[in-house]
């Protein structure tokens, strides 16, 4: 039995608790939040669980094996560091940390202590992402050309992070996972329309090794909600619309291929426009699978693929994005 | 009666001829193309018109008042220069010229000769753009925040221009017209996936005066065709989907406003989420109106709003975009 | 405080319990189901509530004021009759009863005992239906022409009722509520494709007083899920798509009107095609409002508009539908 | 060379002329219309063709082999009869005739004279219908369950025919062609909302041999245009949306099958919910293929599948529909 402490019981915390509690060899033994409302809600649903307001009770408890950190990103490093120092595995909300430096320190600490870090990039466990990953890995999509993602809506203006740190971790972690390529450089633009300095709209280009380009459009000021990702490959192209319940994924037998790779100029391409295919996408809860995977990684000493390094790669791109925006789009190498 | 010569009878030329011929006080007296197929097609439909293969017959003809130039952009400058030198008004395809320098020379020449230049930014005459312009000008939209346009499809790879010069003139001219603000700088990224050096995907950010940002996504390698423009304002937000026949324009009573402009920090915004309204959009042919407007500008010595300066502003942004892409996204001031 | 007993804790029962428990002056004191699974689930969530398997404990309990009957329709009459006989108000799932006769008996009994019957036509409490009702009542829609509803999907084949009794009560109750007209006759067709005699597809036409027609298309064998209702009026037309989260309701300024009502022949109509308008639709939980309304009707001795007579009108149409289908579409007068 | 005369040059006639003129071994030698406007339009496009206002010049001309009849349905019988009597093959607009009796007489006359009748059910030559036909014939769809078609819009109110005779011939001819089953009976409802007696909304159920049901919803008073046909089969289900340019056809691997065909009761079904597949649909002009097929049938003495009998079957269903509507939905056997 693996005992967990969950720190943070706001919007996402209840889902984390529910899913870990649903695993036979795991149990959430303590839930911590500093807000009375949250504690009351937790108590109502889990009358037998230890509900506390001081997270040190979790961080120093000898009966707790792993800590789920579901707090604002600015608090991640301190909590995670203490958890690791006290021998606890961590399951930590995205984005991993506030800086590359913090992420690197946590990874180093976890390695020294032989502990697991899992960064909660929940989307990687959705049926849609798993299906796309499979289509890329089995060669269906062919050589990749681009990743183009739009994640916009009338969003909650955060007080401490801009739209990039709020929304882009989803797309960056998905792109990192699917493409499995080194990000070479970032060029990004954006704007803060209101009195603070936090961008509410941003456009991020990531150059990846192998002539690959990724672009992410995030916006808190869009009248319509869009969650759409396009992936272009030489054999097939994929459109993933996460807002529809059916046919989230469309695979198009459509594209161009250079007619003859040796002839230099002029370019001649062959166009292909065939069937479209919407593969059935698994509908199970992503967080459930991720929670089970975390417990499995601990119980069987496996290295999670969404480990600290995965989180670090996203933080590197976020940091570079922010620096590029401040310089009006300048290319920032990673 | 204003006599026109039309040079170029490929894809767009037939529409230009048909629409000018539909105007009572205008007549296309000569059509020129260097391809036999095109000439044959023209002859079949207009048996009484002078169909020729040497455009000098138009450029030097004393009976021709105005020349419509519907040829590839690389030929625009030479043809336009000769037309102006010979005292002819010009109606010229977008993009206006291949360079800022060429555009400036043509404008100067036209002013010296007191001739009209109209750049065929057809979209400015569509019901959708006219309606948005009206909503901005009458204050319905309120202060503007951003312009975000996506124009992607499985497009014809051009041999001489990249996706930016092919598709972005539409969005840049629309943005220039609607926002009526100075473009200050451009930061753009893109990639050429094939053997030539012509980008097939590009992302353009234009910074405008007054804390405004515009972004344009153009792509020849998209499995789905998208023509969508979003405009964010403080009172209303507009989504224009040009691919639907009904309800092209949606006006959302949705947005945020700073709660109290004096309090510095933290930011507090009020959210508004009300009705949506799809105003009826005029369905007449845009090119018909534009052709009539050109004839009217000549007949009544009016200055067209889509004149050489309008074309020049677009060329400046295109040039800056290209330079920025080559430098990986660097900010290029205009 | 009004004490409730809830009989039936399958799919819908938990929602009923949760919503009644959320009302300050109401409390669910007993929950009954004959399935062990259901009882266990109830016990987990409501450890302090009396969880039982014999509904007579509710029906005869002196401390219970009202009974919510959330069981299969075949059991409605017996349970409802006993509840009423024992002086309890009833909140009863749609469809009200299995027959017109049963419905009439329950109404009579309730009137004699001065008790409330509320038939759970939940849709009447949705923001969409309330908004349409308002648009009809305030004259926005104008004189009504037709009601046309499609409710199809790959549905669960029921063992005891056909697709008409399963799905059509929604549309019939909505139509009855919105139009507030007498149903005069029904003509319906349908087919049972499998071994039993229960139709899995059906088409129902209801003729209403005042030259009004309603049509309902229900189907358990549709590959796509559709929930769409169109309402035609002389001033406006409404399309309600219940499957989208935004813009569920569209009001079209579109229609025809006879040009001159006196001239007999030939018909001349004026076409109107103007703006479309998507009014904001309230998003609160419909069942929550309905539950509050039930408690309010009891506490303040009000007559619910979705009372036994409302349920009876639906049952009359369902019975007529079934009879018409069996006769291949014959007109059945009500 | 087969010489044609085309009678009727209104909305559809120009398409008929253009397509027959595009066939190498066919030529439209005469075009007839009684309206001066139509004649003028024809003369402009076909200056060398014989343009006339008295159709007898076509019907009695010895140099004309075949007559295309593109006139209102009320005139079909007289024109077609004279054409056949004078030894001409006929290509005739849908609906074939105004009555079953007329259709039967024309068929008899054509057979006696050994002439071809082709009824212009253009939809049968679209890529979408051809693809569905292929999927049915090669067993992909499996045993058929139902055909459900919606064809509604804000339509032109006709003065001489109701919405059934205007719109339903499309759906009835498609259903007849695809299912290739005997229509056994019709039950239909509808309503005329205005002063004349012509229904502007109608709902048609056709019972076919083999436990098959077809339903058609036609409406001239719909705020939105819908052209959607669903076909349910035991192996696959098809949704055809004719208003989208891409992915008109969707084939769903979704459905139910009786679990065990011997066990009588209760019904147990297995649900299947797999991939969706949008086969590429041929985009060529349907009328072009149909015109070529007509010429081919004449030149090579083939029997067209859309012959007089095909037209007659549709007329039988239209007549039955009208009779059923007048009786409020009564079942009319064919």
TrEMBL record, chains A, B, C, D:
Pfam families in the cross-refs: GFO_IDH_MocA, GFO_IDH_MocA_C3
Chain ranges of the Gfo/Idh/MocA-like oxidoreductase N-terminal domain: 2-121
InterPro entries attached to this UniProt entry: Gfo/Idh/MocA-like_OxRdtase_N, Gfo/Idh/MocA_Oxidoreductases, GFO_IDH_MocA-like_dom, NAD(P)-bd_dom_sf
Gene3D superfamilies named among the record's database cross-references: Dihydrodipicolinate Reductase, domain 2, NAD(P)-binding Rossmann-like Domain
Residues of the GFO/IDH/MocA-like oxidoreductase domain: 130-232
Protein name: Gfo/Idh/MocA family oxidoreductase
